[in-house]
C-alpha cells in the first residue's frame, strides 16, 4: 500500500508529501477512503500528510477514525468545505441521511460541487490527489497543477468489469427493459473466467435507462484511464482473474489495497456512533451461533418487507442481531405487535448504526444476511463469515454472483420469485422463506461446513494481503 503514491517522484524538497483525499457523499465511499488516508499516513509517517477533504456533517462521521490516527502520531487531518445548496435540510450531506425521495439531491450535489473542488485544490496545491470516482474533474485540475490524480474505487473489480462490459451492450439492454423481456437473462460479455449471467431486472438502473450516472459513465472512465492510476478496496485473491484483467484494460496503474477496514473491536465508531451494547450481547452467545442481519445505509425496505423479515427471524428460532435503518423503523408498525417481547431472549435489534467490522470479528457470529454492498462483501470475506445474500440496489446483484459463484463463500437467501433492482418491481420475500433459509443454514450440514471452510480460507488470504510485503501492501 505504501507504493500507491510514488513519494520519490512527487515529494517536494522539504516537508511531508501532502496527499488530498476527496470522498463523495456516500457513507460506503467516505469510510473506506478515510481508512485509506489513515493507512497511507501510517505507512510513511515521516513522509506523508494525508488530508481528507469533506463537508461538515461528513467530517463528523469520520472524526473518530481521524482522531485515532492522529493519536497514534500519524499526520492525518480534515479540511472542510461547504456542502452545496441543493435543497436538503441542515446536516443532511450524504445518502445515508437523505430520504429516498431526496436521494437525487445528493447526486446533484456531487455534480455541482465541481467549482468548490477546483478552487480548493488550486488554493492548496497538494502534491497528489486521490479522488472518488464521481469527481472526474480532478484529473484535469491535477494535470494543471502537475501532480498525480488517482481514482479511488469503493466498488469491487468483478462488478466494475461487469458493468463496463454491460455498458457496451446498453442499447440492447434498454430495448429488453422497455419490452416484456425484462426477465431475460443476459450473459455478461468479455469477462474472463466462468460465464456470468444476470436478468435484466437485476441490473443497475443506469444500464437500463438514462440517469445521472449513465450520462457521466464514459467521462468518469476516460478520466480514470488518463489519470495516474486507480486504487481499489479489494485484495487480489478475492477477485482473480478479474484483477489481472482490470490492470490490463482499465487503468495505467492499478493498486489493490484492501481490505482497508480490519475486523476488530477497535473500529467501534468507524463511520458513525456504534452501539457497544450489541458487542456485549454477542459475548453472551455461543460461538458461531448468531445470524447478523444488516442491509447497509442506503436502500430502504417497505414496511411490509420489514415485517416479513421480523417474522422470518422469529420463526427461524435462531439467535440474531438485526440492524434496522432508522427510516425502516420510523413506522410504528415496522414489526408485528408483541414481536420484540417474543424474541427478546434470543434476538437484539439495533436501530440506526452498528459497528459492523467489530460485529463480524466477534466469534459468536456465524452468518451474515447481507445486501451485498461491496464493503459488506469484502468485510465478511476478510472476517471469515459466510454470507446469505439478499441484494437490493445498484451493483449488489453483481456482487452477489462473486460471493456465491466465484469466491463461493455464500448462498442466496431466496430464489423463489421475482427479484429486481427497482423495488417497485420486486416481490416481497416471505417470512416462511426467510425462516427456512436462516434455519437451514444455521442448523448445520455439508453446505455450512463448506462455506465456513471457504470463508476461513479467504480470511487467511485477506490477512496475508495486508501484511507487510503482501499483495495489498506492495
Describe the structure.
The chain folds into two domains: 2-263, Glycogen Phosphorylase B (Rossmann fold); 268-462, 3-Layer(aba) Sandwich (Rossmann fold). 49% of the residues are buried. Mean pLDDT is 90; it is low at 1-14. Helix 5 runs parallel beside helix 6 (138-145). Strand 2, helix 3 and strand 3 form a beta-alpha-beta unit. The protein is 42% helix and 14% strand. It contains 19 helices and 15 strands. With 474 residues, it is of the alpha/beta class. It has a seven-stranded parallel β-sheet, sandwiched between helices. The chain has a six-stranded parallel β-sheet with strand order 12-11-10-13-14-15, sandwiched between helices. The longest helix is centred in the last third of the chain and has 21 residues, at 446-466. The protein is globular.
Amino acid at each position: 500500500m505504501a507504493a500507491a503514491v510514488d513519494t520519490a517522484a512527487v515529494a517536494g524538497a522539504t516537508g511531508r508529501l501532502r496527499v488530498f483525499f476527496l470522498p463523495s457523499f456516500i457513507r460506503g465511499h467516505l469510510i473506506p477512503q478515510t481508512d485509506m488516508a489513515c493507512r497511507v499516513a501510517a505507512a510513511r509517517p515521516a513522509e506523508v500528510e494525508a488530508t481528507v477533504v469533506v463537508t461538515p456533517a461528513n467530517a463528523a462521521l469520520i472524526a473518530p477514525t481521524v482522531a485515532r490516527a492522529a493519536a497514534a502520531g500519524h499526520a492525518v487531518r480534515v479540511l472542510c468545505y461547504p456542502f452545496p445548496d441543493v435543497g436538503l435540510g441542515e446536516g443532511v450531506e450524504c445518502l445515508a441521511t437523505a430520504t429516498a425521495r431526496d436521494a437525487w439531491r445528493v447526486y446533484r450535489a456531487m455534480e455541482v460541487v465541481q467549482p468548490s473542488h477546483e478552487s480548493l485544490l488550486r488554493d492548496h496545491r497538494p502534491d497528489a490527489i486521490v479522488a472518488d470516482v464521481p469527481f472526474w474533474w480532478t484529473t484535469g485540475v491535477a494535470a494543471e497543477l502537475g501532480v498525480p490524480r488517482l481514482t479511488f474505487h469503493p466498488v469491487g473489480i468483478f462488478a466494475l468489469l461487469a458493468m463496463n462490459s454491460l455498458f457496451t451492450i446498453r442499447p440492447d439492454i434498454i430495448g429488453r427493459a422497455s419490452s416484456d423481456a425484462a426477465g431475460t437473462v443476459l450473459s455478461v460479455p468479455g469477462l474472463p473466467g466462468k460465464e456470468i449471467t444476470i436478468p435484466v431486472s437485476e441490473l443497475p438502473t443506469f444500464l437500463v435507462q438514462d440517469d445521472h450516472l449513465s450520462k457521466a459513465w464514459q467521462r468518469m472512465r476516460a478520466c480514470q484511464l488518463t489519470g495516474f492510476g486507480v486504487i481499489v478496496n479489494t485484495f487480489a485473491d478475492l477477485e482473480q482473474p478479474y484483477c489481472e484483467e482490470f490492470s490490463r484494460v482499465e487503468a495505467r496503474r492499478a493498486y489493490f489495497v484492501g481490505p482497508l477496514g480490519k475486523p476488530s473491536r477497535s473500529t467501534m465508531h468507524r463511520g458513525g456512533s456504534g452501539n457497544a451494547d450489541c458487542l456485549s450481547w454477542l459475548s453472551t452467545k455461543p460461538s458461531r451461533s448468531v445470524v447478523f442481519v444488516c442491509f447497509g445505509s442506503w436502500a430502504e425496505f417497505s414496511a411490509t418487507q420489514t415485517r416479513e423479515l421480523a417474522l422470518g427471524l422469529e420463526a427461524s428460532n435462531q439467535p440474531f442481531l438485526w440492524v434496522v435503518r432508522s427510516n425502516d423503523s420510523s413506522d410504528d408498525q415496522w414489526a408485528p405487535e408483541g414481536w420484540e417481547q417474543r424474541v427478546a431472549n434470543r434476538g437484539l435489534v439495533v436501530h440506526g448504526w452498528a459497528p459492523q467490522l467489530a460485529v463480524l470479528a466477534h466469534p459468536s457470529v456465524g452468518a451474515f444476511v447481507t445486501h451485498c454492498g461491496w464493503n459488506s462483501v469484502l468485510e465478511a470475506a476478510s472476517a471469515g463469515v459466510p454470507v446469505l445474500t439478499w441484494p437490493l440496489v445498484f451493483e449488489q446483484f453483481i456482487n452477489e454472483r462473486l460471493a456465491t459463484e466465484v469466491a463461493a463463500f455464500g448462498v442466496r437467501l431466496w430464489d423463489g420469485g421475482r427479484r429486481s433492482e427497482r423495488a417497485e418491481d420486486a416481490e416481497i420475500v416471505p417470512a416462511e422463506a426467510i425462516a427456512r433459509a436462516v434455519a437451514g443454514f444455521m442448523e448445520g450440514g455439508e453446505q455450512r461446513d463448506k462455506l465456513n471452510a471457504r470463508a476461513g480460507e479467504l480470511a487467511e488470504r485477506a490477512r496475508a494481503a495486508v501484511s507487510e510485503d503482501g499483495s495489498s501492501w506492495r
